[in-house]
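Dig into my protein:

:::
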Amino acid sequence: MPQDTISNPILRGFNPDPSIVRVGEDYYVATSTFEWFPGVQIHHSRDLVNWRLLTRPLTRPSQLNMLGAPDGCGLWAPCLTHADGRFWLIYTDVKRYGRTTVGGASGASLRDFHNYLVTADAIEGPWSDPVYLNSSGFDPSLFHDDDGRKWLLNQLWDHRPGRNRFAGIVAQQYDPAVQALVGERRNIFPGTVLGLTEAPHLYKRNGWYHLVTAEGGTGFGHAVTMARSRTLEGPYELHPDGPVLTARDRPHAPLQRAGHADLVETPDGTTWMAYLCGRPLPNRGRCVLGRETAIQPMVWGEDDWLRTRDGSGDPELAPPSPGLPPAPWPAAPEWEDFDGPALPIDFQWLRSPFPDELFSLTARSGWLRLYGRETIGSQYRQALVARRQQAFCYGARTVLDFAPEHFQQAAGLVCYYGASKFHYLFVSRDGEHGRHLQVMSALPDSPQADAFTAPIPLPDAGLVHLRVEVDFERLRFAYSLDGDRWTWLPQVFDASILSDEATAPGAPNFTGAFVGMACQDLSGAARPADFDGFGYVERGYRASLE
């Protein structure tokens, strides 16, 4: 029997900026990955209820190289479409974030973002080398018109003093024969009073060009706005109801930050909206799971405007399912042995398209070997392999084999958001304590930006089992020398700092919490650390330790 409802979010944990497409009976959603490599996550479903992570298409240096990209930059807002028997994927590679737009446009806010196109005959690839499109703004989208022409839309960035940074949505024709933009660039939509106009997607229905955009910023003021025109180049009239979907003035909504949407139609003609959302911690208001993806059915009115089912504009936590034949996927394993030649698909690393410099799955059979590289939080070569936190309550553990020679070598288990936000349980060595265990925390909103716990002496050699348990904003570490008897560290760490909302003012914060393994060697010797598997288990709230 088909499942009656959909459980939102459908893509839990850091999966923002969804772009959705249907090809036959298959549905695909592409989401942003920012500084995490490989680039772009593509999830797959056959019933809109059950989803699996299928592939990440940007795997080569020629497609994506984010070395040096600041936190919150890298791969933004992919757009996935299917036309002419091919998949088309547009994306932005952000090299510089510049100053925040908060507080007005008093001076230049210089940003560098480059937009590219790759194509593939099959969703699993191989995907082509990229075609460079432009650098005028971000959130590019490709529209395939019914006359055969293709149009690139993107947000236009205006760095000039006193100007609206988010200067509207521009459109320009793309010629696939010459693989270049042609003709005049036109600003087709200046945006509304909500401001921060971005994320354009264009659709044609009943002779109308319908433009969907995101406005109000990607925080709690986010909203989906719509406008329409009889011609692609406009002028566009605004939706009479204002935002089509938003939680900006609805503190009761369990799904907050709703915006950045895309539309898809099921075979029965129902229009579905996939959109970005966030779930704040109940008693902290911070979204440690990052920006996630939800979906719900929409309704076209007799006036040819799109609305939510009840017209309220509310995001739905449990919308009705489309009633398609159930298509569940196997459950993800709770323990990864690292027995294969490739990383399990849930894991990523940071920025570098040269993974052989950072880790190996063949140097020691059944182990993940990390080569000690730069400091944790480095924007270049950082040996950190991690997976998303996808529930408010979870446990993770690993087994570490590491023999550091001095204090500049460290390895361990890390709960990580970015260079200014992490809790790191690591093994190192110094002359005073010998081999020891310690926690280093980077605190983004504290007068003390970093903090260390007292060193815990360890035997000079041997395996160390490392463990973390997270319950909402509470984070506890433990270690064991035999994998059976655990010693809990006395400190309770603040897991809520691993969120967009915990930040220094103006810093870009667009990802989410990860948990994984890391290794550093500041001496340049690249001393390795070996990890014998990794476990990740989601669970209910636990008031006390085992």
Observations:
- The longest strand covers residues 86-96.
- The chain has no helices and 39 strands.
